[in-house]
Amino acid sequence: MLFNSLAFLIFFPTVFILYWSIPNNKIKTQNVLLLIASYVFYGWWDWRFLSLIAFSTVVDYFVGLQIANAKNNRKRWLLVSVFVNLGLLATFKYFNFFIESWIELWSLIGLETHVGTLNIVLPVGISFYTFQTMSYSIDIYRKELQPTKDFIAFSTFVSFFPQLVAGPIERASNLIPQLLTKREWKHENFKNGFFQICIGFFRKVVVADSIGALIDGVYNEPGIHNSTTIGLAVFLYSFQIYFDFSGYSDIAIGTAKLLGFQFKRNFNLPYFSTSITEFWRRWHISLSSWLRDYLYIPLGGNRNGTVMLYRNLFLTMLLGGLWHGSSWNFVIWGMFHGILLAIERGFGLIPKKYNLFNNLLTFFLVTLIWVFFRALDFGDTKIIFQKLFTGPYRELYIGDIGLLVSTFYGLTLALLFDLYLFRKGLFLEDLGNRIKNVAFVFAISFIVLNIILFYSSASNFIYFQF
Length: 466
Known about the structure:
By secondary structure, this protein is mostly helical. It is built from 17 helices and no strands. It starts with 5 loop residues before the first helix and ends in a 12-residue tail after the last helix. The relative contact order is 0.11.
């Protein structure tokens, strides 16, 4: 079920009314409703994949209890969780990728191999909920978390519909305690949550979808477009993926807030970063912090000398790129970020008095590397970079000028809003209650009007493919 769909427009108000109709001391009843709603939400795509969530839930629930109770075999139980969750990912997301890569490797030396691939569909959101459940077991193993004996609460934690398919990746230490305590109705939560949902839809529908309609044709066939058009598409994709994914996060966080839950912030104005290191502290925060805590630090972090530090940064980002998708383009995307992080740590940053230059340089580098993320394959990537760096740029943009104008209208509004937040040092999660009632009504009316004018039912969220 898509957030930007008629089905969700009916689904969520129904859940909202039923949920708050239950007395808040009936915690388990509320959780049962949320669990059923979450399974309906996810099963809307393909009910067969519900078995994967249920399987992962059962495994990690019992593994968590066994790790806490075991005296001598704690690591063995942890490995059960790791192998099951990574096994699901390997089978459904990476099996065909590795087989096809193996065939291509042998073909380079003139040998033909015949290895079958699987005809399977990638389950939506599998990368998110497997990481979420696996971190639960790891935290118990590290004795940073006590397992819950409430199976309904744990099942709801795994499948909670606002963040099930594209994050944020919520930690058990944050979400499970909220599921085990009373949720109070608070007017400020409603106001903040509703405002953040509206901003999320604006970012998705008015900005990201408009940019997508403009650049999809360019990325699908880069060979037939001139350098000017390619350059504009590369520039705009940085904003499409940011406003698409941050918009999803806003809707998820706002929806959870309407139900009395507090999610962690997932974006913090990443394009105002003055280094790649800062960018990863502001971009997809739930993933970057997960990679830091469960991959980079266990690899050794910065504890074993400079060479090992570089290795750990490189491996963390390379695997982070592979997490995003089963393509060498994603691996290269992550690899370049790892190299840039290592360079920053090794040679230091340009002095802070050159912050504007640092900001522009960071945005330029991030934008170039996004090409690997968006291009359909490595062949298209080569074409795009060739046209970017060889030109000529004397040809005019080729495309729908009316769509280009409307796209820059929405993008300008969104960037001015982000600049306002940055200059004021504000967070979107808290902004709703800072706006007086008359201004709040005006702002919501303006946002909704733009969403109606720009609405297109054809656009999925980018991160659903991961």
